[in-house]
Write a structure and sequence with these properties.
With about 300 residues, the chain is α/β, with parallel strands linked by helices. The protein contains eleven helices and twelve strands. The longest helix has 25 residues.
């Protein structure tokens, strides 16, 4: 890692504002990244954590610059990209100072893959926060391609931020996908902790694609949906009771729906402020969940997504 001279090193001693475990934020100068910075600034204020803003200067032979032009890789281009990175870090730092003037901030301009840098730094981080736009322009597609590798590589929770849906009606609601696995238990505790610090209501959601299993025609005539839903919600309440007792001030409700987890959570995200999911579920391997539910959420959710490692 090669930090710029103007970027002070991360302090690892005691800090009067908190435990000094930083929140890492990847920035690239985009509006989506600045939105992620604002979200992280609120988190740092609540947790009294310092923030570490990071920009990686690619060694790739091509790069999508702010103006959208593709540049061929050579030494002069590399220097220009460092200037772009310096500007992105300065803009992000100004956003933090405006949104949360009490938060301590350091910046690092690092040569190489931001994925590798965040993987290494995340071992001593509270959370990694990164913008996850829906894509469209070439530049967004290039920088956005880092999101899932970061989610896979990070050694702490990762928040993939995007602008919440305009039709969102329950700004203070957090949705957590729960299936009874160890990963979803970790996600539940993280969701409860976040709900307590923000005053948000928590919805614990579980899904079982009954229609897909028995057939839509049979499902509409032979399945007692009210009984299935009420039994499922009681199961959720029992499974979550011990964790919820640790957070008595958090209002919790339960949703048991006929849907695949990916589709169900994306639908709920349209009316939520945050969706939380574990990095490992009932699949055979961590990559199974991230390859389906987690990745589907990161790419298609209508609000920020927190993936808990």
């Amino acid at each position: 890692m090669i930090p710029t001279e103007r970027s002070p090193p991360m302090a690892h001693g005691d800090n009067e504002h908190g435990d000094n475990i930083p929140v890492l934020v990847g920035v690239d100068g985009s509006q989506t990244a600045l939105g992620a910075v604002r979200w992280a600034a609120e988190l740092c204020t609540r947790t009294r954590s310092p923030m570490h803003l990071i920009h990686g200067v690619t060694h790739s032979r091509w790069y999508a610059a702010h103006e959208g032009a593709l540049l061929l890789g050579d030494q002069s281009v590399h220097e220009r990209l460092r200037v772009v990175g310096e500007k992105a870090l300065t803009e992000a730092q100004e956003v933090v100072h405006d949104a949360a003037p009490g938060v301590d901030v350091v910046t690092s301009l690092l040569d190489g893959s931001i994925v590798e840098h965040l993987e290494n730094l995340s071992a001593r981080a509270r959370m990694v926060v990164i913008g996850a736009g829906h894509g469209g322009r070439v530049r967004e597609l290039v920088l956005g391609s880092h999101v899932m590798p970061i989610v896979h590589a990070a050694q702490c929770p990762v928040l993939a931020w995007r602008e919440p849906a305009a039709q969102r009606t329950e700004v203070g609601r957090i949705v957590i996908g729960y299936d009874g696995s160890a990963g979803s238990e970790d996600a539940l505790l993280a969701a409860l902790d976040h709900a307590q610090s923000t005053g948000a209501r928590l919805t614990v959601a579980s899904f079982w694609p009954v229609s897909a299993l028995v057939g839509v025609g049979y499902a509409t005539t032979l399945v007692d949906w009210d009984t299935i839903r009420s039994d499922g919600e009681r199961w959720l309440a029992r499974r979550c009771a011990a964790a919820c007792e640790k957070y008595p001030d958090v209002a919790v409700d339960y949703a048991y729906e006929d849907s695949s987890p990916g589709r169900g959570l994306v639908n709920l995200s349209a009316s939520a402020g945050l969706v939380v999911v574990g990095s490992r579920g009932r699949g055979e391997a961590t990559s199974t969940l991230l390859g389906s539910v987690g990745e589907n959420l990161v790419h298609h959710a209508r609000c920020p997504v927190l993936v808990v490692q």
